UniProtKB/TrEMBL annotation:
GO terms for biological process: translation. This protein binds to 23S rRNA in the presence of protein L20. It comes from the Bacteria. GO terms for molecular function: rRNA binding; structural constituent of ribosome. Part of the 50S ribosomal subunit. Contacts protein L20. Belongs to the bacterial ribosomal protein bL21 family. It comes from Sphingomonas baiyangensis. One of its GO terms (cellular component) is cytoplasm. Residues 111-126 have a biased composition (Low complexity). Keywords: Ribonucleoprotein, Ribosomal protein, RNA-binding, rRNA-binding. This is Large ribosomal subunit protein bL21. Residues 103-126 are annotated as: Disordered.
Length: 126
């Protein structure tokens, strides 16, 4: 299955297991991200409805692009300006397309431990 998602003002064709480089997204390596803006989805030549469809991704790394040198010069006016820029990027690994997200063991253990702590806290207060 494939999908076309929009993030950072650009569109990307993705499938499960793909790695893509997108404009900087907030988060650290290992965090999961949900891309909600799905423009098209399908399998083979058949298209599916994109109503409520999401793409689950995991941040692999936060990186910088190649350095771009900006040089301005006006001849005969002794005007020269040199500047450089490196764009911030996020490398994503697509985990799943279509709402079915794989839960990591750490998140599952954390969500199971939270209700137990709140129940103990309520019992101690009463």
């Amino acid at each position: 299955m494939f999908a076309i998602v929009r993030t950072g003002g650009k569109q990307y064709r993705v499938a499960a297991g793909d790695k893509i480089v997108v404009e900087k997204l907030g988060g650290n390596a290992g965090d999961s991200v949900t891309l909600d803006d799905v423009l098209l989805a399908g399998e083979g030549s058949e298209l599916k409805s994109t109503q409520g469809l999401t793409v689950a991704a995991e941040i692999v790394a936060q990186a910088q692009g190649e350095k771009v040198i900006i040089f301005k010069k006006r001849r005969r006016h002794n005007y020269r300006r040199k500047n450089g820029h490196r764009q911030q990027h996020t490398i994503l690994k697509i985990v799943a397309i279509g709402g079915e997200q794989k839960k990591s063991k750490a998140k599952a253990a954390k969500s199971e431990a939270a209700p137990a702590q709140t129940a103990a806290g309520e019992g101690a207060a009463a």
